[in-house]
Amino acid sequence: MKQSDTKSLPRILAIGAHPDDCDIKAGGCAILWAQAGCAVRFVSMTNGDAGHHEMSGPELAARRKAEAEAAGRVAGIEYQVLDNQDGQLVPGLEQRWELIRLIRAFRPDLILTHRPNDYHPDHRYASQVVQDCSYLIGVPNICPDSPRLETAPVMAYFWDEFKKPIPFKTDVAVDIDSVMDRKIRMLDCHASQFYEWLPWIDRHGIRMPEEPSLRLEVLADFIRQFNRPDEESRDFLKRYYGDARGVAVISAECFEACEYGAPLDGAAIRRLFPFIGNSLRETNNAARVLG
Ligand SMILES: [Zn+2]
User: Fold this and answer.
1) How far apart are CA 67 and CA 20, in angstroms?
2) Which residues are near ligand 1, the ion (C-beta closer than 5 Å)?
């Protein structure tokens, strides 16, 4: 496979297990990519029809699809929800073929997904299916009805806090402070999750007040804790945004390179994350002026 065209704007495909996963992990970047004019699509591998304590089945799936589409409108991106059942995703051939065709049709320069070790089987298997596609999207004899990709996309993983067998390693950290309020409004669209289901299942320590007008601020605090840069991310931010900005960033989204895609080197970072590139150029220009 050839290297991607460096001149055109990158096309971004984020693949999560549930309708809200991509938003939590990459919602801020999606807004920045959309603002830069990039084509961005979020895909949920399942329809989310198990993620509630009072609703289920097609009624819940329809509600979650509508929530995802509303979040997509807030970010200015496309949101696609596949019809695999929630809690029952398997890394089978049908799922692989569906995703191979989807990836080939979208022609992404960057694919984001979960890491393969995660508490939720749907997250693990979504990651597995994406990895299973990484080589086969270029093999013409697989799904010959859809043209193979001639350019290998870069692949990267969403941040998570799991430590075993290997902790997350930051290869890219993006300052999302300028769009954090809008990211929170994206997540506010997923009312069935943040205001109903997640407080009820109580797996993530989210507590919601009864009073609806107070919920948005509680949601904002809940989300911000996942976007606080750690030491490694802070180092990246200082290197790429300059010391002053790097130290000041409050919220960042971080990604780890997946070895099965094209290399995520410095040139790829600048091409795929053009908003970081702008900061770099501004930093370089400032350095030249100061120097
Ligand atoms: Zn999920």
Assistant:
1) 9
2) 17-18, 21
Q: How far is the CA of 134 from the centre of ligand 1 (A)?
A: 21
pLDDT tens digits, one per residue of 127-158:
999 999 999 999 999 999 999 999 999 999 99
Q: How far is the CA of 87 from the centre of ligand 1 (A)?
A: 10
Task: Count Cβ atoms below 10 Å from residue 263 Cβ, excluding itself.
Answer: 12
| CA-based nearest residue to 14, from 86, 80, 89 | 80
Whole-number pLDDT of residue 39: 98
Give the full edge-to-edge strand order of the sheet including 252-257.
78-84, 40-46, 12-16, 110-113, 154-158, 252-257, 172-175
* Residue 288 CA, ligand 1 centroid: distance in Å: 45
Distance CA 115, CA 130 (A): 10
Determine the distance separating the centroid of ligand 1 and the alpha carbon of 44, expressed in angstroms: 9
What global pTM score does this model have? 0.93
Q: Is the pLDDT of residue 289 over 60?
A: no
Among the listed residues 257, 285, 284, the one whose alpha carbon sits nearest the alpha carbon of residue 269 = 257
Cα-to-centroid distance, 287 and ligand 1 (Å): 42
- Helix segments in 2-119, DSSP class H: 21-35, 57-75, 93-106
- Report how far ligand 1's centroid is from the alpha carbon of 48 (Å): 9
Given the structure tokens 């609806």, which residue do they identify?
Answer: 212
**Residue 123 C-alpha to ligand 1 middle, in angstroms?**
6
